[in-house]
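#struct-pred

JT: dropping the chains for the assembly here, can someone run the whole complex?
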Amino acid sequence: MASIETVGLTKNYGGLCAVDGLNIEIKDEIFGLLGPNGSGKTTTVLMLTTLISQTRGSASVCGYDTIKQPDKVRSCLSYVPQDMAIDTNLTGRENMMVFARLYGIENPKDKVDELLGIMELSDRADDLAKTYSGGMRRRLELAEALVHEPDVIFLDEPTLGLDVGARKKIWRHIYSLNRKGMTIFVTTHYMDEAEQFCDRVGIIDHGKIAALGTPSELKSQLMSDVITVSIDGEFFPVSPDGLNGILYVGNSGDEYSFTAENGREALPLIADALKSSGNRVRSMAMREPSLDDVFLQSVGKQEEEQGFEELKYRLMLRRR
Ligand SMILES: Nc1ncnc2c1ncn2[C@@H]1O[C@H](COP(=O)(O)OP(=O)(O)OP(=O)(O)O)[C@@H](O)[C@H]1O
Ligand SMILES: [Mg+2]
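RK: done, full complex below.
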């Protein structure tokens, strides 16, 4: 049985379709939902956690329908929201005790001690949470989410604003929770994290899934080499003539990415095409595809089809 299943899940806010016909099936895995700002990640999480209701379609968590059996759904999941959800005027231990009592846990003190230990917070448990670092606050929220031993945990951007070390620590905990049998549904903007830790990822754009699969499946859909080009100053559109078989992926700031079967052959062709349209190429590099490239290629397609995203539109080379 799938831990989470959605069928045509849709949420409209007035005229805006925030989530548009989502069909996903998630088993005992770490599933990452990736997407640009405003693409519908939090809205999806809010529907799955029963906090808002959908406009159309259905969703189930642990086999329970989110609309018909919301109490059952809530009893099997935990949710750590995008914005911090702890009381900073209480100590870590006090925050935990609030949750443990709320859930009517037997021997709450023992449970709280155990979870503070797991999340490496024991030595600071009696300090006010306002004195905690961002990483410690996030670990405290994770500890709270574990109080009632959920089967499914929803984490909305659990590593936002944390330094690299703190992010790694959070992911190590997420990973070990999954290995203990919990299904993890996580949203993030960090592609490197998703690539390293998620069993599967879905890329959502304008409320629709634009790509779904394991990180390696998604990367293998791109051609074998990625060529990145940094351009100084203004970008001038490039004619696709002579660039057959080279695919424009997208840009991130002044770095433009292309994929090609044979990067070595493509490199001088791309350089020539850019230079002859008046671009000042600062540097070029070649590497294997990453999830970043998949993301760049997957998002923004709708604008492109509508002809809005002018740059991509003008630059568009032959897509496979
Ligand atoms: N309560 C609301 N009323 C109206 N529009 C909303 C509401 N909540 C979200 N939206 C809109 O729905 C769309 C999706 O928002 P959502 O918060 O799900 O995006 P997100 O992918 O989580 O973005 P971010 O990465 O910035 O957290 C956005 O256009 C947002 O403005
Ligand atoms: Mg969000």
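JT: nice. The mean pLDDT is 88. Residues 13, 16, 18, 35, 37-43, 82 surround adenosine-5'-triphosphate (ligand 1) (CB under 6 Å).
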